[in-house]
Structure formats: structure tokens, C-alpha cells
Amino acid sequence: MKAGDHLFLIDGSGYIFRAYHALPPLTRKSDGLPVGAVSGFCNMLWKLLSDARDTSVGVTPTHFAVIFDHSAKNFRHDLYTDYKANRSAPPEDLVPQFALIRQATRAFNIPCIEREGFEADDIIATYARLAEGVGADVTIVSSDKDLMQLVGEHVSLYDSMKDRQIGPAEVREKWGVGPEGMIDLQALVGDSIDNVPGIPGIGPKTAAQLLDEYGDLDTLLEHAGEIKQKKRRENLLEFAEQARLSRDLVRLKTDTPVDLDLTALVLEPQDGPRLVAFLKGLEFSSLTRRVAEATGTDAATVEAETVEGEAGSAAHGPDLDPGDADADADTKAVGARASDAFANGAWTPAALAAKRSEAAAAGTIDHARYHCIRDLETLKLWAEEARQSGLVAFDTETNSLDAMQADLVGFSLALTHDVRDASGAAIRAAYVPLLHRKQEDDLLGGGLVEDQVPFDEALSILKAVLEDASILKIGQNLKYDWLVMKRHGVTIAGFDDTLLISYVLDAGRGNHGMDVLSERWLGHTPIPYKEVCGTGRSAITFERVDLEAATRYAAEDADVTLRLWLVLKPRLVADGLIAVYERLERPLVAVLARMEERGVSVDRQILSRLSGELAQGAAALEAEIQEIAGEPFNIGSTKQLGEILFGKLGLPGGAKTKGGQWSTSAQVLEDLAAAGHELPRKIVDWRQLTKLKSTYTDALPGYIHPTTTRVHTSYALASTTTGRLSSSEPNLQNIPIRTAVGRKIRTAFVAERGHKLVSADYSQIELRVLAHVAEIPQLVQAFADDMDIHAMTASEMFGVPVEGMPGEVRRRAKAINFGIIYGISAFGLANQLGIERSEAGDYIKRYFERFPGIRDYIEDTKAFARQHGYVETIFGRRAHYPEIRSANPSMRAFNERAAINAPIQGSAADVIRRAMIRMEDALAHSNLAARMLLQVHDELIFEVPDDEVEATMPLVRSVMEEAAMPARAMRVPLRVDVRAADNWDEAH
Fold first, then answer.
1. For the whole model, what pTM was predicted?
2. Taking a C-beta distance cutoff of 8 angstroms, is the pair 747, 942 a contact?
3. Which DSSP state fits 646?
4. How many Cβ atoms from other residues are within 10 Å of residue 715's Cβ?
5. Residue closest to 129 by CA, chosen among 216, 252, 12, 250
6. Is residue 112 helix, strand or coil?
7. For domain 719-765+869-988, is the CATH number 3.90.1150.10?
8. In whole angstroms, what is the distance from residue 901 CA to residue 434 CA?
9. Assigned superfamily of 350-576
10. Measured between alpha carbons, how far is 317 from 313 in angstroms, rounded to an integer?
């Protein structure tokens, strides 16, 4: 969608209501099926589409969608349990027509959209704002006053029954306020139909007068005590919170998660034969003739479609809105959804998830049913069963946590004959030992245990299963198994990962490890690894475990994994998160595994030289520290350091830990250093040097793989609440880039001979995401103009021209820009800038005054998080903060800051995930040999042949800058800085 396009959004639920009451009862002659509402709906929709093709009528839509209520229950019921409580059940003859109307919409080749937990109005509001964001016009076909808050320069309502366009002037004429005042007006007046309480005694006229005088609801309530009319004043004071609640109930959500983006709403021509067949099936003779004529279809040659009501779908009856309070008498409210009998019998995703969860909790895991497969014929039978059933749980057993060096000791499988059976009772699991060794032969190197499946033959059978995309492989933390098998010449195709499914569903709610998930969902505690392999000096690797114990342990892993999949997979659909899993998580498994397999070259000599330099620097600092302290002491001893700082020197701010020692945490030392104390500053510098030496220059050579001679980090997809990746063994994401020493460490990461390292780094992506989600006009324009965003901010805040701006002024604006994203306090900003807290507070206040949309974003985000317990990225990823309602102020404040930041950081993380997922195919399509090696926050690092650098850099930039498309059209352009050099530091 682009500027100049025109989107029609049809309030499908309102259409159903009007169609039902506008026509006399009608049944299909052949079987008596009620179809009156369907007939009215189809006729109204056909007229709209006919007018759309007639350019003489006026407005011609380019995009078109019909929006329905999914059910009566939505998020507003969590705010107010009595919301819409006074609505009665729909008429019995309307119930079977709900599904038919949805079928009709699809027969007209029109997108049919609904979302569980949200009202049709919320979806309409979201699409309207998205369309506005790209400069398109929107016509909402409805006369519902709830939608009038959306009306503006590019958005209007159209009452098709009265052929009347409703713009800002019509809203003001009708209600006495413009569209911008409709939310506050409805909050005051309430709505008896929706059971929105409002304030007693205040009608539309009075509400409009009050808002005209005081401007908005908050100002009115603040000055309620000044109201002259006694009863009105008392009601405003007594029911103030009720008005605020009402405002939350009537305010439409403009960020409802939607599965179809704007490009999917393009108005396509009607498929004449398909539509005629559907209409003939409903026996709508007159409309069939008109459609056939208009589409050039010979109706006589088209066979009638068999059209039947769908009980399961009928359960999702629309939340029928009777419209305005002054609507005609024949259009009274008739209720919200189908009867409970339909709902209880529906096999919805939510119902399936509930049944699976209930069955899993009631089921038992029986180790006696596990098998140890020790011959090829039995293994072949299990492989065939996997092929027949279409899915198998799979897990490897190895002798190392390092997938790049682990030997495959054995593998386990779990099967079920019918994955649609909620009980999961048919699960069978087995372990296939391959290279187990006798424990008694440890000193001699160990001989193989007898009667194991021959390794090569077993691998051949397993390869056929794992590489068959038609067989779904189910694993837990499957990236490890993927990489182990890849090293053995097997590429797993077609898989699900229960770790990632749980992460998508419940990020922030707890750990996603198999043992934790098993206890949470199955009520079963799996056998601990240490129980079979021991701990400490007596620990053995898995190849030394006897086969009986190995079978119990390994087969249980596969069994539990399959049971978890049965429970968790339906929740993805029920919770509307299937797209997040399918587009952001599952595809990244293989991408990251290949990156880990490639590794990156490091120069041992550079690391050795740096280690010496760091040792010398630390020694010099140590001498200075002890001279300032006036005595020698162990700087690494927190006890001795505390005694020096707070005992001997008597520095302020000392606090003791529960153990009775002085606290010498990094924050304590930073605070003292910021206050001008020399010794704490030296300690901070010494700690940094020694940490860099021990963590990187000394440790990195130990991570060099003996065969590849490269360093292979391991990425975790499910370790952060926001979706950011983390790396370990070694952690390459914490190398400081703002210090000279940190940059020197990056010089040790080098390209192979004949290659360059190419670094592609998103420029200020989190600020760009903030500008997008908070819709800050100044920031959006600055990014569009490719301005220096920090200089622009400083100019806005401090009135200083961008040209010739002092560096200190820009630095302060930069600190505020980034600090706001992380919910920085005046205290934190003061420490960062070295200024008084009051001055920092003034800066933050001025920032919100200049960019009020950011304050709105923060408050809206906190309110959403408190209501739902989670926040969402622009791609629908959820980050849960269950403690945001905590009674502990510190805990609550921490969760609020995290919730504010999560949509920004998480959206940025999702963007780079999308880029990584697309990158390899894009490179292959262009016949480029570049290899993606590392991901570090907003940066991707590639190794590229020298003669392909110039061709690779623009392609990488293009993929990354367009990564959000087509799912989201960003209001600001994404920018990527791409450089090539011989080492990482020079390329960054």
C-alpha cells in the first residue's frame, strides 16, 4: 500500500446486525436453513463492490476487507467484568448464519479478518492507522459512534444504509466535539448498550459543553471541584475513576496484532464461477443473476456449491453492535455471540490446547515401556513407523556440551500412532546406543559394549528419516542436535523445537529447559543428568553409562519432548503466535547452527601481545592503587578493599552486605568515582583490565578448535525476554567497543587469507523503532532527512542551532535519547552526565515536553503491560512481565522500565532476525560466496572473498534495510553502515 491508495474496511459485525433486521425472515427452500442475514449481507456487499467498479460513483477502493468480532469475550472484560454484560443471546435463527456469512465473504474473494481477544473495531482501528501511516485514505463502512474517534483527514465513515459520508464536521455536528474528543465524551456519557458506566447524570450535550470548557477529561476531573452545579460536581468527583475506566473501555486499540498486512488487502476481482456457485448453493436466484451478468459468467454451466452451516465456526458469532443510541427501533441490540452449546462443542485451537494440557497433566510416564534398540531390523521398523505417522521426537546423546567437538554416542526416538489423540497415551520411546564403552576398561581406553547398532548403518537409516521433510522431527533445543548431526553428514529438515515454542508463548514467565517444562506441564520430574553421569571427580561421560540407565534417561528425554509438543503446539495457534514462531524462531535454528559451524579466525599472536599489555597496565594500576591506599593489599579481595575504602579512608556511601562485609560492587565504585574519588576510579579501571585479560586475551586461544583452527561461539535463541540473541563459550557480544582496549581485542578477529571481514551494522535502530512505534513527528522527519538525530534532539530541547553545535550539548542529547529507551531516571542521567539530579530531571521533563508522543508511548505501554501482563514487538513477539503488578515498588518499577524498553529492543532484535533468515538465500541467489559468521546485537559480520566484496556489500545492506518488509512498513527508513577490512575492528 502507498500514498493515494484507498482502503475500505467493512464493519462485518454491524453488517450482520443490520442485514438481519432489515429483511424479513428467509430460509433456504430445500432444507429450511435460515439465510435472511446472509442474503442481506451478500446484497449489501455486492452493492459496495459494484459501486467500487463504477468510477462515476466517486471513491474507488484499491484495498478492501471485512472485519468481524471473533467472540463476545475480549481484553476489555479483564478491565471490567460487566462489560457488555447486559446483552442477550442472539436469536436462534441467526446463530447458524455466522459461519455462512464468513463463507460468503471468502466467496466474494474478500479478506475475512477477526482476532480472538479483540473486537472488530480494534482491528479496524489498527488497519486504519497503518494505512494512514503510509499516506493512504480509509473509508470505514459503518455508522457506529465508537469508530468516530478514528475520523480524520484521511479517515472517514460511510453509512451505507443512508448513503452518508461522515467526516470530522459531521462528527462535531452530531456530538458537539470533533473526533479527537469522542473518547472523552463517551467516557463521560457511558454506553448503556455496551454497559460502559460513564458518569451518572451526564449526557452527550453536557459532556460536549464540559469538554469544550476544560479541553479534555483529565483536566475536567482535576477541576471538578470548581463545577458550579452541585449534583454534577458531586458526580464528577465521586465517579472520576469510573470515567477513567470508561475511557479505557471505549478507546480503540490501534496496535492490535494482525496476521495480514496491508498488502494482503488488495481488492482483487471476483471469481465469477466460484461466487455464482456459492450463491446458487444458497438459492439466492436474483443476486446470482446479477453477479453472473456482471462477471460474464454463464450461470447455467456452473454447478451449485454444497453450502452448509458450520457449528464450530458458528460459535464465533460476532459481537453484534446495535450502533448509535438513536438507531431505528428495528435495529436494537440482540447479543454478542452464539449459544454456549455451540462454543462448548467447538474444536477450536484453544479447546484443543486445553484438552491436551489436561490430558498431559493426568498422564503418566512409564519407563518400563522404553526400548533399547540394539539391532538394525528393529531400528528399521521404528524408522518406518516414523515415516508412516509423519512425526518423531528425536534427541542425541553425546560426550560433550560443545556441539562442534561432541561425539555421537547414541540417539533416542519417541513415536505416537495418532498425534491428534489428546491423551498422547500411545507414545513409545526408545534409545539406540552406538558407541557406549565398557566402564571397567577406562584405564585401557575402553572397548565398545557388545550388541550395539553398527554406527554407519544406523546413521544411514537415521539420515533417511532426519532429511525427509515430510516427517516432522520434534526436539528440545534442537540447534545442538542439528549441529551434531550436520558434522556427521546429516542435515535435519522439517522440525519443531519445544524450547522455542515455549519461548514464543511464555518469554519472561520462566525457564524453557526441558526439566522445567516437564514439571510445569506434565507434572513429571525427569531423571537428572547427574543421576546417570555423576558429579565432580567421579563424573563420567555418557558413553560410560550402562545401557539400562542410558535407555531410561535418553528415551525419557524423547518421550517428554513429544508430550510437551502435544501440549504446547496448539497454544501457538490459540494464542495467535504461530507467525512469530514460524517466521522468527524456527527458521533461525539452521541459520545459527551454520554460523556456529563456520566459526571465526582469531590471531593468537595479537592476543598474546595484548595479554602482555593488559598485564603491564594492570600491574601499573595496582602499584598506583596501593600507593594511594598507603599500604599493600589484595585488590581482588572484596573484604580487604572494603576495609580500605570505608574503614581506613572513610569514603562516603558505605553499606554492608548481609554477611557483614562492605559492599564493593561495580555500582558502588562507579558512584564513588563519579563523585571525584581517585582510588575507586583506579579500582574500576583495574577490574576492567583484568577482566578483559582473563575473559578474552587469555581465554580465547583456549577456544580455538583443534581441527578448524577457528573459534566457534554458541548462540542461544531463548535466553532473553525481548528476543535478543546471546552468545557463550566464548561470549563475543560483551567485548566493549567504546574503549581502546576493547577495540584492540577486536583486531584479533581476522579474515582468512584472500578474504575480508565485512561488518554491517544497523544505525541507531532502536531510536528508529521508537520513532516508528511512538509516532514522533520530529524524529520521523529527522530520520527521513538523514539528519544527525542527537544534534536534532539537542536543537529541539536546548534551542541550539545544529550547525556548529558544541560537542557537549550533543553528548547530553545522545545520553537522553538512549536513556529514555531504557526508562532512565533523573538519578541515573545525573550520574551519567555528571550533573545535579535536579538538572537531569529538568532535561527529562523538557524532553517529554518537546516529544510528547514518547510520554504517551511510555504510559500506554505501562498500561497495556499492567492489563495483559506482557508487551509486544511490532512483529507480535510477546515479552511477559508478570511482576509488573507486584506490591513491591522496586520490583514493579523494574518491570515497568523493562516493559517500556522491550517493544523497542525486541522489535530491533526481530528485524535483525528477519535479515539473518533471508540473508543466506539472497547471497546464494546472487552466486556470492560470502559467509555469515557472527551476530553481535545490531551487527552482522561476514567473511567475503576479496574479489566479491564490492558486490556483497550493497546486497547485505539491501537485505538488512528491507528486513521489516513486507510484514511492517516502517515510518522511518532503516540505515545500515557496511565496511570491509582485514579485521573486525577496522571493519566496524
1. 0.65
2. no
3. I
4. 21
5. 252
6. strand
7. no
8. 48
9. Ribonuclease H-like superfamily/Ribonuclease H (3.30.420.10)
10. 8
- Cell for 955? 546486497
Using only C-alpha atoms, what is the Rg of the chain? 33
How long a stretch of residues is the chain? 988
Alpha-carbon gap, residue 151 to 129, rounded angstroms: 10
> Is the four-CA dihedral 919, 924, 930, 932 of positive or negative sign?
positive
Q: Helix and strand tally (H, E) in the chain?
A: 40, 22
CA 305 from chain centre, in angstroms, equals 40
Q: What span, in angstroms and rounded, lies between the C-alpha atoms of 53 and 95?
A: 33
Integer Cα distance of 608 and 747 in angstroms: 12
* Local structure of residue 449 (DSSP, 8 states): P
Third-level CATH fold of 6-171+253-314: Rossmann fold (3.40.50)
**Sequence-ordered list of residues with C-beta below 8 angstroms from that of 803, at least 6 positions apart, any chain:** none
Letter string b/e over residues 922-953, b meaning 16 or more CB atoms within 10 A of that residue's CB: ebeeeebebbbbbbbbbbbbbbbbeebbeebb
Nearest Cα to Cα of residue 114 among 72, 161, 55? 72
List strands edge to edge, sheet with 939-945. Answer: 931-936, 939-945, 755-762, 976-981
Has residue 24 got a pLDDT over 80?
Answer: no
In our burial notation (b when 16+ CB lie closer than 10 A, e otherwise), range 348-363 reads bbebbbeebbebbeeb
Specify the domain boundaries for CATH 3.40.50.1010 within the chain: 6-171+253-314
DSSP-based three-state secondary structure for 270: coil
Helical ranges in 315-405 per DSSP H: 340-345, 349-362, 376-389
Amino acid sitting at position 126: T
Summarised one tens digit per residue, pLDDT across range 44-98 is 888 888 877 665 556 788 999 999 888 767 888 888 887 877 665 666 677 778 8
Q: How far is 398 from 457, CA to CA, in rounded Å?
A: 18
Chain region(s) in the chain for CATH 3.30.70.370: 719-765+869-988
Query: Which range (374-378, 409-413, 454-458, 826-830) has the least confidence?
Result: 826-830
Over the stretch 462-493, which tens digit does the pLDDT of each residue have? Answer: 999 999 988 999 999 999 999 999 999 999 99
> In one letter, which amino acid is 159?
D
Within the chain, all domains assigned CATH 3.30.420.10 are found at 350-576
